[in-house]
Write a structure and sequence with these properties.
single chain, about 80 residues, mainly alpha, globular
């Protein structure tokens, strides 16, 4: 996490965390989960990175297409945000 922040890659990774982005995949979701779980990025910064909006859009897309490959990880991210 420290290396990601030092190299300023957190914002780039959050750019990949979008429905339809070519680099959006299970690894991207796992990395975002680890970023949120680390708690090194505060809630204000997560809000600026539009995490809630992105999770909502991804969850709507996943559920409407009946592709539940990342729903568990998304729920874990939401749980981390709430706690």
């Amino acid at each position: 996490m420290t290396i990601l922040k030092k190299l300023k890659l957190v914002g780039t990774l959050f750019d990949f965390f979008t429905v339809g982005h070519p680099r959006f995949n299970a690894y991207t979701v796992k990395i975002i989960k680890q970023i949120v779980s680390s708690r090194e990025v505060d809630l204000d910064e997560l809000d600026k990175l539009q995490l809630i909006e992105k999770i909502n859009a991804i969850m709507v897309n996943v559920m409407s297409d009946h592709e539940e490959w990342c729903s568990d990880l998304l729920l874990e991210i939401m749980n981390e945000i709430l706690h």
